[in-house]
Design brief:
Keywords: Cell membrane, Iron, Iron-sulfur, Membrane, Metal-binding, Signal, Transmembrane, Transmembrane helix. It is found in: Cell membrane. Pfam families: Fer4_5 (PF12801), FMN_bind (PF04205). With 873 residues, this protein is α+β, with helices and mostly antiparallel strands. It is built from 32 helices and 19 strands. The strands form five sheets. Strands 1-2-3-4-5 form a five-stranded antiparallel sheet. α4 packs across α8 and α18 packs across α23. The N terminus is likely disordered.
Length: 873
């Protein structure tokens, strides 16, 4: 045994030394949110602004931008007779396919005359995973796989399939969505330029065949039919102060369709347009009905180029010069809005067909208000003629799957197995009482056997294998999305994390945070496994717990960390993501301790080293993810069982590794990690002191040993009662079955039906009370003005005169006040399912959790309502 201990200690020292000396393997995050030249999107000499030579070795001269979408030509060193070597393109000139962050990866691409990729350089990305988790060198290595491959090849992320002529690319573990999006960018950009220069055959689309009715439509009918669409850009979308007026508002629609052309232009106007159109040409109109910005752009003034609007259809882009524009003298459709700028554009390309979907893009610069950095972006509105306006309806098109769809399809079996595991864990835990009744304090294997399997799967399959460790950054992203803009694709892009969060949300409200944190969290399971293994190899005598008074102080640190990250995220999500390195998850599972700088590796090593001696130190004292899940755990429906004798018996508290049982035998479900040791003792007739005492008494008196009832006591022998089994000391003590003493709101006593629903709404929305007025009249009066101010703030937000940041400030201030006012009057929260009137006295953390979660949901509902009203307007 001594030799084994020495070997273990030696191994630990070697591990710590290796982590300390681990080199920093990832490159500096030079491309993360890099500031690009503001004129990059429009400058004719693109290669004067970006390093084109880096993606086309051997080229010394580059042309100005040409073609549509734009590209530049690369030439050799022979200045006497320049020889064309190939082409260089900027990905955002061609496609704005978003990656995991929701923003495109700006990529410079070199391609020779045969269509082979010769160079790839990422100029800018917004992928936090490439800043804090996966090194940027991994993306460089991924891009290097394109070199020598042809744009004509069928290239996909994953394994090669020679029988289908598919060339596979090795993905980046943990960044599948990013690389799938990058593959779409590479192939779309290369194909678009290759078709222009003749490497690939041009796109051929069947021309539209219109279904003509001869009916003249009003403007409202055109809008309802979808043949006239709106493109609206709000000021805050381009980094300006939010206001009631849009940055720009455009309406546009097809003019080649006879019904639409006559409705918009009138009979004479449409006939005149037809005389000016050649075969294969297509016309559409744009009018500006709002905003001070012109859609013509500065390029129109300089060289007759409309550089702010563009039509995109598939991989093809169409821009316009003054020769492609006709004057629009008026809209004949009844009810048309007034406008201050108008034009008819002509698309002179046989590649365009009105039968297929297309989109109008407004191009512009966005200013980051936090940093002042300018970035080129586009705002798109899709357009597709309704099926009723086309003979035979809309054609069938095969659009490529979105990146998140491809991820789900490529890993369908693993995802299904993971879903089965999560369901199995939930079901087994819901039936935990059956397992705990089969266990005793000396034989916990009926429970621990299943729990240890969960730990092993969490660490090796979920953590190191699928790299599906949930993180506080996902909570912050969810928080922002819930308040501002919910995007399903963002959350669906990582199927394991998506399913894991469904499991977490459901189980937190059913049982509390303990099922995830105690059974399924990869890092938490790793800590627990280290603690258990250390005990097995003889280090038990060195293992200890912090004194309860220090534990009760330090457990609040994780809440402080969580709230700090939440506040920082409201000002800068990027900074919050950097500060989220307080989580060791990325270093442990996503990147690996040997691939990170030594401070990160040392941090992980320190936590795991302390885990040898203290059970789950990170979970109990630092983890912001645990804190974010602990708050809604206040309202879990089903808690662990307690009996009256638990207020005087300390057996469970002594053995609680999470130190979640207080001196009165109450369980703090925000801290409980659901090891179920207390539940095992709850029905153990030899381990639970009150049960053991009663068992011995019955054996001595020759009485029947009845089974243990649901209340944790022996089923009574007639005519005895359960009360006879409760000790006199315990009977006089507090009831440990609830985390705090029961409360009974007098105004809700006996209410039912509609009156109960009404009182529920009043309880949640009206924090004032008579008791509070008596104890803190000044505080109550101050709240009236604050409530009025907060209500005005919401109205101003609805009118567009107040920014989202300002309303969050007001809402946060109101929430703080509501906590104070409820603590002075309505100091109670529900315990258990919401439909039961089971109340208890609220502690400060209870009230913070209740008010914070309630107001988050109300705020999200108000933002959604405001957005809907603005959208309808």
């Amino acid at each position: 045994m001594i030799s084994l201990r020495r070997q273990f200690a030696t191994l630990l020292l070697v591990l710590l030394a290796a982590l300390w000396l681990a080199p920093r393997a990832h490159a500096a995050a030079g491309a993360y949110e890099a500031e690009l030249p503001a004129e990059l999107a429009t400058a004719r000499d693109m290669c004067a602004l970006v390093p084109c030579k880096d993606v086309f070795p051997g080229a010394s001269h580059f042309s100005e931008r040409k073609g549509q979408p734009p590209y530049v030509e690369a030439y050799d060193n022979n200045s006497a007779q320049k020889k064309l070597l190939g082409y260089v393109m900027l990905s955002t000139d061609i496609t704005d396919t978003p990656a995991y962050s929701g923003k495109p990866v700006v990529t410079l691409i070199g391609m020779d005359k045969e269509g082979r990729f010769v160079g790839v350089k990422v100029l800018k990305h917004s992928e936090p995973i490439l800043l804090l988790g996966i090194p940027e060198s991994a993306l460089l290595k991924f891009n290097a796989q394109y070199l020598g491959k042809s744009v004509a090849d069928k290239i996909e992320v994953g394994q090669s399939r020679p029988d289908e002529n598919v060339l596979g690319l090795d993905a980046i573990s943990g960044a599948t969505v990013t690389v799938i999006a990058q593959n779409q960018v590479m192939m779309a950009s290369g194909s678009a330029v290759a078709r222009q220069v003749g490497i690939l055959a041009p796109t051929v689309r069947e021309p539209a065949r219109y279904a003509e009715t001869g009916k003249r439509l009003t403007w409202a009918e055109l809008v309802q039919q979808g043949t006239v669409q709106r493109l609206r850009v709000a000021p805050e979308q381009v980094g300006l102060d939010k206001g009631p007026e849009p940055f720009i508002e455009l309406w546009f629609g097809d003019l080649n369709h006879p019904d639409l052309g006559r409705s918009v232009l009138g009979e004479n106007g449409w006939n005149n347009l037809r005389l000016q159109l050649k075969e294969g040409e297509h016309a559409f109109f744009i009018i500006r009905t709002g905003g001070k910005e012109s859609f013509k752009g500065s390029g129109f003034v300089r060289g007759g180029i409309y550089d702010r609007v563009q039509v995109r259809q598939g991989a093809d882009s169409f821009t316009f010069r003054d020769l492609d524009a006709l004057n629009l003298y008026g809209i004949e459709a009844a009810g048309a809005p007034s406008y201050n700028e108008s034009v008819i554009f002509i698309i002179r390309s046989s590649a365009f067909s009105a039968a297929y979907p297309w989109k109008l893009s407004f191009l512009g610069n966005r200013v980051d208000r936090a940093t002042g950095a300018r970035s080129f972006t586009s705002f798109d509105t899709p357009y597709w003629l309704p099926a009723a306006t086309l003979q035979g309806g809309r054609p069938t098109i095969n659009e490529p799957d979105a990146p998140w769809v491809r991820v789900w399809k490529s890993r369908a079996v693993e995802i299904a197995l993971f879903a089965v595991l999560l369901i199995a864990v939930t079901v087994v835990y819901a039936l935990r009482e059956k397992l705990t009744r089969l266990s005793t304090h000396k034989n916990k294997w009926p429970v621990n056997g299943f729990k240890y399997i969960c730990w092993a799967l969490a660490v090796f399959w979920i953590g190191f294998g699928a790299m599906a460790q949930p993180s506080i950054t996902q909570v912050l992203t969810w928080f922002h999305s819930l308040l501002f803009q919910w995007t399903w694709s963002l959350f669906l892009s990582d199927p394991f994390i998506f399913l894991f969060w469904i499991f977490i949300i459901v189980t937190v409200f059913l049982f509390g945070r303990g099922l995830f944190c105690g059974w399924m969290c990869p890092f938490g399971s790793l800590q627990e496994a280290i603690y258990k293994v250390a005990r097995l190899v003889g280090l038990k005598r060195f293992q200890t717990q912090l004194p309860q008074k220090w534990h009760d102080r330090l457990k609040w640190v994780k809440y402080a960390v969580f709230f700090a990250l939440l506040v920082v995220s409201m000002f800068s999500m990027g900074l919050a993501e950097k500060l989220a390195e307080v989580e060791p998850f990325k270093t442990t599972f996503l990147v690996g301790v040997m691939n990170r700088a030594w401070p990160y590796s040392l941090f992980v090593a320190a936590i795991l080293g302390v885990s040898i001696f203290i059970e789950r130190p990170y979970c109990k004292y630092i983890c912001p993810l645990g804190a974010s899940l602990a708050m809604p755990s206040t309202f879990r429906w089903f808690g662990l069982k307690r009996k009256q004798d638990c207020n005087s018996c300390k057996a469970c508290a002594v053995g609680c590794g999470a130190q979640a049982i207080d001196a009165d035998g109450r369980i703090d479900h925000r801290e409980c990690l659901h090891c179920l040791d207390c539940m095992i003792l709850y029905t153990d007739t030899k381990g639970c002191p009150p049960l053991a005492k009663e068992r011995k008494r019955r054996e001595k008196d020759g009485l029947e040993i009845t089974p243990i009832g649901a209340n944790g006591y022996f089923i009574p022998i007639h005519p005895a009662t359960v009360q006879d089994q409760i000790s006199a000391k315990a009977a006089k003590g507090p009831d440990p079955r609830m985390p705090t003493v029961p409360a009974h709101p007098a105004h809700k006593a006996g209410s039912q039906g509609l009156r109960w629903i009404w009182l529920e709404l009043v309880d949640h929305l009206w924090p004032w009370s008579r008791e509070g007025w008596a104890s803190g009249r000044g505080l109550q009066m101050a709240g009236v003005s604050l409530a009025i101010a907060a209500s005005v703030a919401w109205v101003m937000t609805a009118l567009g005169t107040l920014s989202s940041g300002a309303i969050i400030g007001w809402w946060f201030g109101w929430s703080v006040y509501e906590v104070l006012i409820r603590l002075s009057g309505k100091r109670y929260v529900k315990d258990g399912p919401w439909w039961r009137d089971q109340y208890r006295r609220a502690g400060v953390m209870d009230m913070l959790s209740y008010v914070g979660f309630k107001n988050l949901l109300i705020g999200a509902a108000l933002f959604l309502a405001i957005k809907t009203v603005v959208g309808l307007a």
